Amino acid sequence: MRFSDRYPIIVTPHKNACRDFWVHHFDLQVGFDSDWFVWLTAADGSLSMAFMTPDHPSAPPGPEAFSGTGMCFELQVEDAEAEHAAFLAAGGHVAYPLTDEAFGQRRFGFADPSGLWVDVVQQIDPAAGYWDRYMQGQ
Predict the structure, then answer these.
(1) Gap between the Cα atoms of 10 and 78, Å rounded
(2) Taking a C-beta distance cutoff of 8 angstroms, is the pair 121, 77 a contact?
(3) Shortest CA distance to 22 belongs to which of 122, 111, 121?
(4) Could you tell me if 40 and 50 are in contact, meaning their C-beta atoms sit under 8 angstroms apart?
(5) Which long-range contacts link 38-47 to residues 24+ away (Cβ below 8 Å)?
(6) What is each CA distance from 91 to 21, 57, 86, 94, 101, in whole angstroms?
(7) Quick one: which of 97, 99, 129, 126 has its CA closest to 110?
(8) What is the tens place of the pLDDT at every residue in 2-17?
(9) What digits encode the pLDDT tens for the residues 92-104?
(10) pLDDT score of 68 more than 90
């Protein structure tokens, strides 16, 4: 199967707030916007995502409004510290502080207006020996 794009659609009554949040904090561009659906994309095409209201009759069967649990949206970046500073400077609220994790990530986290948990991560060297206990057959 060949894909021309891939993106999550988060079903939420907060479509406009989500659109504004992602445009403001991450400079996403609005590719399509209607009263019930918005598709956002990064200028370089590295990220696409959409938000849809739960009450439109054209919604496909099954997607109930997102409850804010059970999903973590990872955004891998080159410099998590710089992104953290920019997010805070733009008025963002961080729920998980900038942390260097022993398993090899520098990250911070927050929830968007839909309740989607977002983890902004930078790959760093793990603590010496951290992964040894998890490796199978070695």
Answers:
(1) 26
(2) yes
(3) 111
(4) yes
(5) 39/7, 47/75
(6) 10, 35, 9, 10, 25
(7) 97
(8) 888 889 999 999 999 9
(9) 999 999 999 999 9
(10) no
* DSSP-assigned states of every residue in 32-82: EE-SSEEEEE-TTSS-EEEEE-TT-TTSPSS-PPP-S-S-EEEEE-S-HHH
Residue in 100, 106, 103, 105 with CA at minimum distance from that of residue 135: 103
3-state secondary structure of 132: helix
Contact indicator for 12, 54 with CB cutoff of 8 Å: yes
Total residue length of the chain: 138
Give buried/exposed letters for 3-24 (b at 16+ CB in 10 A, else e). eeeeeebbbbebbeebbebbee
